[in-house]
Prior knowledge:
Protein name: NUBP2 factor
Oligomer: single chain
Strand order of the largest sheet: 5-6-2-7-1-8
CATH class: Alpha Beta
Order of helices and strands: HEHEHEEEEHEHE
Structural class: alpha/beta
Helix content: 25-40%
GO cellular component, one term: cytosol
Number of domains: 1
Shape: globular
Number of strands: 8
Pfam families: ParA (PF10609)
GO biological process, one term: iron-sulfur cluster assembly
Organism: Cisticola juncidis
Radius of gyration: 14 Å
CATH architecture: 3-Layer(aba) Sandwich
Amino acid sequence: LAERTNLAGVQHILLVLSGKGGVGKSTLSTELALALRNAGKRVGILDVDLCGPSIPRMLRAQDSAVHQCDSGWVPVLVGQDRAIALMSIGFLLERTDDAVVWRGPKKNALIKQFVTDVAWGDLDFLIVDTPPGTSDEHISTVEALRPHRLLGAVLVTTPQ
């Protein structure tokens, strides 16, 4: 029931993924969120790139902290007008350059927790920035989001 509650106000969920690293997924996720926000949409970003959470740094929010409320974690509000909701493991690390060296089950549990325990509120779009490749994290993310309004995916590629 918590899943429905915390994502009930999210109209569209969009995955950003690729088959390899370094192609610009996080940049595209950030720019897409900013463009949608500038078009008057309510936007959130869920950064499930657990080993390389770069979106907090891209939005100059790496020193922010996540807080708890009755319905779970409160996402950090970022951007010039603080109008983009962001959740990332980057906010949960002691230092922003700490490495995350976890096995699959722990990563999968955190992804499920990000989907079920973040109080997103009302959003037009939730953009999900994924790690590179086709790993367990992708399967866990899609499985956790399956009951919700998954709009689709943007596949970032390069010409080589």
